[in-house]
Amino acid sequence: MREEKTGMVEDGPTPVMRFEHSQIREYLDAIHQKVEGQNPDTEWEEQALGSHNRKEERTLYPAIDNVTSAEERATVFSSMNAIPKDRYNACCGQD
Q: If DSSP states are collapsed to H, E and C, what string results for 38-74?
């Protein structure tokens, strides 16, 4: 979805989500390091990930649904399904 469609290019939920996505990489790296070191104390990072998911599910996704057509959403899902699995099945910062 293009942000221009909503008029919220500089503000709104998507810039916040993009910032949080950069933080998610840090949380996942921290979880990986803890698991690798056999430290089960990942609750804080897991809660942070869950908080982000709830924001997307409660705010971002409904907002997207309100400004896109069923055809546009189908196109997005089709594009997502076409992403090669090796692009998102990486671990430990491997690309």
A: CCCCCHHHHHHHHHHHHHHHHHHHHHHHHHCCHHHHH
Return the closest-CA partner of residue 20 out of 64, 53, 42, 43. 53
Contact between 33 and 92 under an 8 Å Cβ cutoff? The reply is no
C-alpha separations of 45 from 23, 41, 55, 62, 66 in Å = 10, 9, 16, 25, 31
**The two three-digit tokens of residue 46, written as one number:** 């897991």
Rounded to two decimals, what is the model's pTM?
Answer: 0.63
The per-residue pLDDT for range 5-33, each reduced to its tens digit, is 666 666 777 888 888 888 999 999 999 99
3-class DSSP state of 2: coil
